Amino acid sequence: MSILLAEFLGTTILLLLGIGVNANTSLKNTIGNKDSAWVLVTMAWGLSVFIAVFITAQYSGAHLNPAVTVGLATAGKFSWSLVPSYIISQFLGAIFGSWLAYVIYIDHYRLTKDEETVRGSFCTGPSIRNYKNNFFSELIGTFVLVFAIFFIVKPNIEIEGEVINFGLGALDALPVGIVVWVIGMTLGGTTGFAINPARDFGPRLMYSLLPRKNKKPDWSYSWIPVLGPLVGAILAGIIFNILL
Fold first, then answer.
1. Are residues 7 and 89 in contact, defined by beta-carbon separation less than 8 angstroms?
2. Adjacent-strand bridge partners of 166
3. Which of 24, 32, 190, 213 is the most buried (most CB within 10 A)?
4. Could you tell me the domains of the chain?
5. Is pLDDT above 70 for 176?
6. Is the C-alpha dihedral spanning 180, 233, 13, 204 positive or negative?
7. pLDDT tens digits for 80-118?
8. 147-154 CB contacts, 8 Å cutoff, 24+ apart
9. Mind spelling out the 3-state secondary structure of the chain?
10. How far, in Å, are 148, 150, 185 from residue 25 at the CA level?
11. Contact assessment for residue 64 and residue 159, using Cβ atoms and an 8 Å cutoff
12. What are the backbone dihedrals phi and psi of residue 78, each rounded to the nearest 5 degrees, phi first?
């Protein structure tokens, strides 16, 4: 499996499962639509990361997140020349994965008339709209994720003895999944913890393309879950290098 196909496949699986749990806990007449939804959502997103990373780690390092890719490059643990192709693969995987989840839950999407609920199953949004604080929430959440990953990653791709990529080995998928789960339970209440530009922008784009009336993709907010995670990841890389 090529590294770009691995990133596409891994991000597809991540978004298929992640958007799946969002749909299961929010759409009309689903079995998972219960009061304990937030616990289920945060747990499922963490386990989705674990599964996606476990499948693809040996091939690409399983970044599955543009912020992780940029953060690793900032810390000197990943080649900048590979960053654009990784990010493109991640965004394409996010779009495809969210479309697959939509197809699975299409009957429930048709029954659900509240566009806020439908959009919320695809992408994140603030519980209180305050762009400055929303940006800071995404920045800090992603900082914690990427900073923790720096203590987990190991060299996983070498060419002629030269390390060109740091990533996550299969056994390291579980602690990263736990980190995502904890971030969701503790810091996710303000913005829904995107902490991944592809995870938000890809499904938001997919939602905007759906054949639904009165769609509300909320593009005015969409820059927050893109730039916030990227800035948080860059800061994590810089501070990691300063400390160590």
1. yes
2. 155
3. 24
4. 3-243 (1.20.1080.10)
5. yes
6. positive
7. 999 999 999 999 999 999 999 999 999 999 999 999 999
8. 147/236, 147/239, 147/240, 148/175, 148/176, 148/179, 149/68, 149/71, 149/72, 149/176, 149/179, 150/71, 150/72, 150/75, 150/77, 150/236, 150/237, 150/240, 152/176, 153/61, 153/72, 153/77
9. CCHHHHHHHHHHHHHHHHHHHHHHHHCCCCCCCCCCHHHHHHHHHHHHHHHHHHHHHHHHCCCCCHHHHHHHHHCCCECHHHHHHHHHHHHHHHHHHHHHHHHHCHHHHHHCCCHHHHHHHHCCCCCCCCHHHHHHHHHHHHHHHHHHHHCCCEEEEEECCEEEEEECCHHHHHHHHHHHHHHHHHHCCCCCCCCCHHHHHHHHHHHHCCCCCCCCCCCCCCCHHHHHHHHHHHHHHHHHHHHC
10. 29, 32, 16
11. no
12. -155, 145
In sequence order, what are the residues at sequence separation of 6 or more whose Cβ sits closer than 8 angstroms to the Cβ of residue 66? 86, 87, 90, 91, 196, 197, 198, 229, 230
Amino acid at 124: T
Q: Compute the chain's Rg from CA coordinates.
A: 17
Q: Are 3 and 59 in contact (CB under 8 A)?
A: yes
Contact, 19 vs 121, CB < 8 A? yes
